[in-house]
Amino acid sequence: MSTINRDFRFNDAKSRHKRHPALSWGLFALASIVIGVVVASTSDFSSEAPDLAEQANMELTTLALPLKGQAETTGAQTRSVALPLKPKDAQHDTVKLETRTLNNEPQTRVTRESIRLPLPELQAQQAIIDDIQQQGAKQWRELKVKPGDSMARLFKRANISPQQLDELMKSGKAVKKLKRIFPGDTIRVLTDDNGVLQALSYEINHESYLLAERQDGKLVATIEQYEIEKRIAHASGAIKSSLFLAAAEAGVSENIIMELAGIFGWDIDFVLDIRKGDTFNVLYEELYRNGEKIADGEILAAEFVNNGKAYRAVRYVNPQTNQAEYYSEDGKSMRKAFLRSPVNFTRISSTFTTGRYHPILHKIRAHKGVDYAAKRGTPVRAAGDGKIIYRGKKGGYGKTVIIQHGSRYSTLYAHLNNYKRGQRVGGKVKQGQVIGFVGSSGLATGPHLHYEFRVNGVHRNPLTVRLPSAKPVPKRYKLDFETKTRPVLAQLDLLTRTQLAANSP
Ligand SMILES: [Zn+2]
Q1: How far apart are CA 292 and CA 284, in angstroms?
Q2: Ligand 1 centroid – CA 456 distance (Å)
Q3: 251 and 190 in one domain?
Q4: Alpha-carbon distance 45 to 80, whole Å?
């Protein structure tokens, strides 16, 4: 729907412009005469400014000041304001102004004659001029980060002294962000006539940017937040050959479809279970900055119909944990308490058996876990939320991590190449959090993860054990859950009905 709206607005503006070109240019010329200010908003336009200046025998200065928040937009055009300074003979100038329409259509020539300015207007004009002169020749510059660049190299290229960089790096914690800059990044700097740094801005992510500003002669760095507007978008699709093709047809980004697969991935195997005729409906956020879409936000609610069975999920921030999760309409968690496999594997090299010939020990031994063959260094993830109760070498298991999940469950990860740094015995881990990396430590023929799943201390086959669901919405938040999710679920209903209507003959 938002796309349609956008298109409408665009067409509307265009046609209006075409209908009254004479009127708009007439108004423009009038406005220019009265204030004597030429506002040029396109580069085509401002390139004509020197011509204007020459003929008017005026001195012009170009002032490009970014508006806070707006200037940081990538690819945004800087609005140039060309103001005539010190008009030498403002009374009798004939000014020829060459203009182009916005879409570069045939050029029109507008000739205007300036008029005598009454005193109040002159004073107002002088005030503007004074203001501009006070600002000096300040101008924001964009420094593009190239491969191998450091701040020092960047400043050198921009002719800003190393002392300025020293001062900047001492201007607050926020400048730490400048220690890791990447090729393609843009750093904007404002210097005065003497090349002294007045301000610097650097986009950290969609939502925030670093701003260092000289205040009372001292540079002060802060992290500023952009104003992000969230709009709700929706998409519907039917699968003909693949989920990705259906998503592309529905205009859904790859990110959103990956998240969708993640939400329903506990119930639907998106590799094996997908059928022709499966449908999806998704409501999600789009993030806008200054009216421009910058990214997709969160999925708010979604439905996936797989092989005739409908699955629905809605996003809800659990007030107890302050974490957003996806729940079914009746408040059950969409995810299980455990991942089926804690590693992205290439193949299962050994399954769970009660008796097996051990290739190294040359003995028949039970294999009470699953071996996942994977490249050395592949991240190993905690199968569920829990606490690390063991982290160290353990005989033939080599480097091993054991996690306790509540009172009933524990999982074991063996033959690790190394552990994830910064974790310790007794520390808590979240489901999916990396705890180590695949290797072949201990008794192993090649790199693989040996994974065990125990229920009440008894080994169970991780591939077949019935995995418990993650915790539902706590009872005391049930009402809150219903109140908060009702509107978005109603929207999903509407979307589903519309899709059904569209697909029925
Ligand atoms: Zn094994």
Answers
A1: 17
A2: 20
A3: no
A4: 10
